Amino acid sequence: MNREAINEYQQHYDALPFEETLAAIRKKMLKSFLEKYKPQTFVEVGCGNDSVTDFYSDYKQATVVEPAEAFHKRLVARHADDEADKNNFINDFFSPTLYDNYAFGNVDAIIISGMLHEVPDPFLILSTAHKISGPETVVHVNVPNANSLHRLLAYKAGMIKELKEKSALQTLLKQPHTFDMADLKSMAAASGFDVIDEGSYFIKPFTHVQMEVLRTHEKFGEKIIEGLEKLISYLPDYGAEIFVNLRRK
Question: Considering the entire predicted model, what is its pTM?
Answer without folding.
Answer: 0.89
